[in-house]
Design a protein that fits this description.
Blueprint lengths: L21 E6 L2 E6 L7 E3 L50 E4 L3 E3 L18 E4 L6 E2 H5 L8 E12 L3 E10 L1 E6 L2 E7 L20 E7 L2 E11 L5 E6 L5 E2 L4
Antiparallel strand pairs: 1-2, 2-3, 4-6, 4-8, 5-8, 7-14, 8-13, 8-15, 9-12, 9-14, 10-11, 10-13
């Protein structure tokens, strides 16, 4: 799920074709990474996002590894509790959704609102995680072998006190289609394998990926998002930038 967490990625001072020293300090739900004797963390992870509290270490890549040392209990005063979500009070993030069961999206097909599963279908609640991330990977993983595309539907309700158009920011991986009250309002791709098709920042899921205008009528508005993926992590972040006259679902 590396492509869902750009905040946990950083440039590192590596020496080409030379030995590089790496030190990982892991304490509870936090981790600091030090490269080549850095005095301050090269990468700080305020919350380890995995579902497990213990496991194994995998060293992989076009490199040689040596002199591995494991020091149980040495945490260098790093606190174990996860850091507070910096977006916890961002009222514009849409956090409450319903998610459908998986479908397969054949070939180069694009979903239409007619493909939306019925209300009586296999829908279940899905809450956004830290940063407002609706993490489809945690729910379904990568269910199909490449190049086949998995498709999932997400839906929520936005209430408006009158007719208006609001500006929204959206982050996603890898393909997205948005429908409001049965009408298509946005579609785009964020394909990591094609450099020209990567959205900033470098094909990761982020609110920098895109934006669109959301037309709302007075009362309740059904917003439906179709997401397709065949490459590592997938998910959605969606933010309404001006909540004047707007009410988001609260569960």
């Amino acid at each position: 799920m590396w492509d869902l967490f750009p905040r946990y990625q950083s440039a590192a001072p590596l020496r080409l074709k030379q030995w590089n020293h790496m030190r990982l300090v892991i304490s509870g739900q936090r981790m600091d990474v030090y490269i080549n004797g850095a005095q301050n963390p090269t990468l700080h992870v305020g919350r380890l996002e995995g579902d497990l509290s213990s496991g194994e270490l995998l060293l992989q890549g076009p490199a040689a590894f040596s002199n591995l040392v494991v020091s149980p209990g040495r945490v260098d005063k790093l606190e174990p509790e996860a850091e507070k979500d910096p977006t916890w009070d961002d009222a514009g993030l849409v956090r409450h959704w319903q998610i459908s069961s998986l479908q397969e999206l054949p070939g180069a097909n694009a979903p239409t609102v007619q493909d939306l599963p019925p209300v009586s279908g296999n829908w279940k609640p899905l809450e956004a995680e830290r940063g407002g991330l609706v993490n489809v990977s945690r729910e379904y993983g990568l269910p199909l072998k490449r190049p086949n595309r998995a498709l999932v539907w997400l839906k929520t309700t936005v209430k408006s006190d009158g007719e208006r158009v609001v500006h929204t920011s959206v982050g996603w991986a890898r393909e997205i289609w948005v429908f409001v009250n049965g009408q298509a309002v946005y579609a785009d791709k964020n394909l990591y394998t094609l450099a020209s098709a990567r959205k900033a920042p470098d094909g990761r899921c982020s609110l920098e990926n895109g934006s669109f205008a959301l037309p709302l009528r007075a009362g309740e508005n059904e917003v439906v998002v179709a997401l397709a993926n065949n490459f590592y992590g997938w998910g959605l972040i969606w933010r309404i930038n001006d909540l004047t006259g707007i009410e988001l679902p609260k569960w």
